[in-house]
UniProtKB/TrEMBL annotation:
<keyword id="KW-0067">ATP-binding</keyword>
<dbReference type="Pfam" id="PF00288">
    <property type="entry name" value="GHMP_kinases_N"/>
</dbReference>
<feature type="domain" description="GHMP kinase C-terminal">
    <location>
        <begin position="192"/>
        <end position="263"/>
    </location>
</feature>
<comment type="similarity">
    <text>Belongs to the GHMP kinase family. Homoserine kinase subfamily.</text>
</comment>
<dbReference type="InterPro" id="IPR036554">
    <property type="entry name" value="GHMP_kinase_C_sf"/>
</dbReference>
<dbReference type="InterPro" id="IPR006204">
    <property type="entry name" value="GHMP_kinase_N_dom"/>
</dbReference>
<keyword id="KW-0791">Threonine biosynthesis</keyword>
<dbReference type="GO" id="GO:0004413">
    <property type="term" value="F:homoserine kinase activity"/>
</dbReference>
<feature type="domain" description="GHMP kinase N-terminal">
    <location>
        <begin position="55"/>
        <end position="132"/>
    </location>
</feature>
<keyword id="KW-0547">Nucleotide-binding</keyword>
<feature type="binding site">
    <location>
        <begin position="79"/>
        <end position="89"/>
    </location>
    <ligand>
        <name>ATP</name>
    </ligand>
</feature>
<dbReference type="Pfam" id="PF08544">
    <property type="entry name" value="GHMP_kinases_C"/>
</dbReference>
<keyword id="KW-0418">Kinase</keyword>
<dbReference type="GO" id="GO:0005524">
    <property type="term" value="F:ATP binding"/>
</dbReference>
<comment type="pathway">
    <text>Amino-acid biosynthesis; L-threonine biosynthesis; L-threonine from L-aspartate: step 4/5.</text>
</comment>
<dbReference type="InterPro" id="IPR013750">
    <property type="entry name" value="GHMP_kinase_C_dom"/>
</dbReference>
<dbReference type="InterPro" id="IPR006203">
    <property type="entry name" value="GHMP_knse_ATP-bd_CS"/>
</dbReference>
Amino acid sequence: MGRTVSVSVPASSANLGPGFDCMAAAIGLWLHLEVEETGHFAVEHDLPLPTDRSNVVVQAFERLRPADGLTFRVRTDVPLAGGLGSSATAIVAGLAAAAALDGGATTPDALLPLAVDIEGHPDNVSAALHGGFILSDGTWTVRIDPPPGLEAVFVVPDEAVRTAAARAVLPQHVPLEDATKNVAWAAALAIGLERGDLDVVAHSLRDVLHQPHRAALFPRSAALIDDHATLGALGATVSGAGPTVMLWVRSEDAPAVVDAATARAAGWAQVLHAPFAAEGARVGVGAARA
């Protein structure tokens, strides 16, 4: 047997309310990839995903080098649909594994341009590479450490909403007043996260650019956002294009919020509790086996 590369990549939640298409957070749910030089091509997993070269992990890998003679083993804690960056985890994992096998750089700066090119937007892949909270326009990234005492509870509906459908309902033009509000809330959110001021964070989890327009696509998720306070959360945001909702919670309140959300989601969604991940993609290379 030849060398083995192991890559772990965190999930991510994009937009974070006011930060449409430019803010995201790394989440402590992980995709794990092992690529081994076995002399034959194979993709091994127990997921409802392709096991040939159309697999997103392999497609990303082959942007840097051929996958011939390699076995890909994938396991993941990340829901495959709903807005937790599953495609970003796969893209970053494939790119990082290919770069590592070639002895190339696996740093965020090295991998981000190609990851953005494949994914089409910078937020999820930036968070997956850098960890923490990020602000990005695709050419630069500002990273903020997760503040202590802040965690996430996710309500992940069983019925997915296609990203294309969620994009299609957004207006092409917005009032200047609405844009100004979102800029102010996004700036305040970044400041609150940097300072660890959860009161400022809670005040800033607002949006008028995308969430109201998408509410009709997932009314039960939208109702959770409206009712976040009754669930015990600081606030709630649509994760990515939805329909998953991220409840922002103080650590000490998390168990009670999980219980309340589980009761509300019975029969139509699963509830996941996860920390924000300070670390981005991790890469390790093992020596060839005898």
